[in-house]
Amino acid sequence: MRLNKLLAERAGLARRKCDAAILAGEVTIDGEVVITPGVDVDPSEHAVALRGIVLAGAPSQIHLMLHKPVGVLVTWSDPRGRPTVASYVPKGMPRLFAVGRLDYDTSGLLVLTNDGPLAHRLAHPRYEVTKRYRITLERLPSAVQTRWLEEGVDLGEGEFSSPARVYPAGARAIDLVIAEGKKRQVRRMCKAVGLWLTALQRVAFGPLTLGDLPPGKTRPLTAQELQALRAASRGPGRGDAG
Questions:
Q1: How many beta carbons lie within 10 A of that of residue 141, not counting itself?
Q2: pLDDT in tens, 125-159
Q3: Taking the model in full, what pTM does it have?
Q4: How far is C-alpha 100 from the geometric centre of its chain's CA atoms?
Q5: What structural domains and CATH numbers belong to the chain?
Q6: Less Cβ crowding at N or C end of the chain, within 10 Å?
Q7: What is the pLDDT of residue 14?
Q8: Cα angle at 132 between 110 and 187, to 5 degrees?
Q9: Which positions are catalytic?
Q10: Which of 34, 68, 69, 29 is nearest to 49 (CA)?
Q11: Does 235 have pLDDT greater than 80?
Q12: Separation of CA 117 from chain center
């Protein structure tokens, strides 16, 4: 494992701060100062210390579901002082990855974990983990607009969406299911076909559903949910793979 990555996981620091500490000579491996952030280190064989304090062992894996409210950034700090998801993480938690970012003005299900490999698989389009969005609209889509969404649309800037699945979800709402995560993709898809949304919420991520979790609240994933999420992250048709 790279030294700066180990430091980020065990000390709970941002990667830039880890690099700065290493370059400043504040990190030692077996008592020797190391100033190369990308050097490989085996934490099971070497004692790594930051400012003279040996790093603790690997933290237990944490998997949380957060109902992100509207008006919250999916980041750990903001120079402009806007609310971030850090405010909603229980105290004492190590640094977590936010899987599948949500826009500032989008609410819904966000997975938070310190399980790096799982976070990578869930976010990578190769594994085709689906996301379900509840879209409240000024008016429902026509049959033609629905077909365009289901066939894939031109998002502009040389990007195209893959085919989506569309389901009715109320008087002025639809559910859109996609397996991608392009920047502001759902909003761009709606704009491309002439739909004007008034609210957007992610209600499911793979096998996970938001359920009745209140906005701003977190809860640990159950063992069954985690098992299903790991299976989904193996890709289509590989849920039972070892």
A1: 20
A2: 889 999 999 999 999 999 999 999 999 999 988 89
A3: 0.76
A4: 3
A5: 3-54 (3.10.290.10), 63-125+210-232 (3.30.70.580), 130-205 (3.30.70.1560)
A6: C
A7: 84
A8: 90
A9: 103
A10: 29
A11: no
A12: 12
